[in-house]
Amino acid sequence: MNLTDRPRRLRTDGIRGLVSETSLAATDLIAPVFVDATTDERLPIESMPGHERVPVSDAVARVEEVLETGVEAVMLFGIPESKDERGSRAWAENGVVQEATRRVTRETDAYVITDVCLCEYTSHGHCGVVEDRAESDPTLTVKNDETLDLLAKTAVSHAEAGADMVAPSSMTDGMVGAIRDALDDAGHDAVPIMSYAAKYESAFYGPFRDAADGAPAFGDRRHYQMDPANAREAMREVELDVEQGADVLMVKPALAYLDIVRAVRESFDHPVAAYNVSGEYAMIHAASEKGWLDLEAAAHESLLAMKRAGADLILTYFAEDIADAL
Ligand code: PBG
Fold first, then answer.
1. Buried-most residue among 51, 63, 65, 107 (CB within 10 A)?
2. What does the record list as GO biological process (predicted)?
3. Are 275 and 196 in contact (CB under 8 A)?
4. What are the pLDDT digits (tens) for 51-107?
5. What is the CATH number of the domain that holds 29?
6. DSSP assignment, residue 293?
7. Which is the closest atom of ligand 1 to the Cα of 276?
8. What does R_g of the chain's alpha carbons equal in angstroms?
């Protein structure tokens, strides 16, 4: 044997850092924060150990906890005091996200991103206005164009409250363009849009739907979220969002969709975000509780894989723990 090439030479402790191709930093991470208008105390989220729904009065304290770890950005999700057919609390001036955003942007240095969707706010739990047909009808879906105006109003109300960036997640065709126009008309041309550009109809959102109380009351989301079987379609979705003015392109979920992260990275020069979703977090937690996985190592490895696939930023429930460990 004549082994001239020995990759193991570069794996000693002294050099491993020098030759590593990818790294994780606290500043790559965005921490999701749940603000709940129905409670005045913090409520643990059972399926997401370590996470809580916090009342508006605690939003600043919660975000300060995040900032202490070195993470500089948060994504705010709201649980409203009441829901209706159209999700009107989503764009209310005194809505839960608007109130929390006002306080957090005034009192902290966090970069505040808001999730723009209607599913937490509608009584039926769908991400838009539902067609007027029997709930048992399997083809029942969300009315695309009627939803656009509501999303636009919601995004503007977040910007008026001081949001640094808005993140539409409803998979409504045309949502980025409608939001961009409305923000510009309202004088918020400097507020960027991080689009959930390729968002799949995924089984990995289960714990989030408990946390945010946003599970659909009937049917599912496959009429608007993407089919996990498709990759080329993701490129069409992303391209449309780019044409409509998206500033940051998100792929969601992350772990099972690293091929999509990579493909988006290669075709576009926009920053790419990966959403390490609730089910990905819950899975690692559950296995580690059983003693089957090392929590921190598995979390770190997952996030590193997202960076390696091409993500610039990662939205993750591990943000604080990983930033603390870095
Ligand atoms: C709302 C929204 C969802 C998630 C983020 N924004 C839920 C959904 O589409 O059902 C899921 C996030 C997660 O699972 O961590 N549209």
1. 63
2. protoporphyrinogen IX biosynthetic process
3. yes
4. 999 999 999 999 999 999 999 999 999 999 999 999 999 999 999 999 999 999 999
5. 3.20.20.70
6. S
7. 15
8. 20
Number of domains in the chain: 1
Residue 73 lies in domain: 24-325
Q: Say if 5 falls within a structural domain.
A: no
296 in a domain, yes or no?
A: yes
Catalytic residue chosen out of the listed positions 83, 143, 153, 199: 199
Nearest to 265 by CA among 299, 307, 301, 302: 307
Ligand 1 proximal residues by C-beta, below 6 Å: 115, 117, 119, 127, 169-170, 205, 208-209, 214, 277-278
> Per-residue pLDDT for 148 more than 90?
yes
Contact 29, 302 (CB under 8 A): no
pTM, full prediction: 0.95
14 is a domain residue: no
Give the mutation target among 169, 252, 306 for probing the ligand 1 site: most ligand atoms within 8 A of CB: 169
List the structure tokens of 78.
């709201």
Do the annotations mark residue 11 as ligand-binding? no
* Domain presence at residue 137: yes
- Residue 157 known to bind ligand: no
- Enter the DSSP assignment of 10: G
295 Cβ partners below 8 Å, 6+ apart? Answer: 284, 285, 288, 321
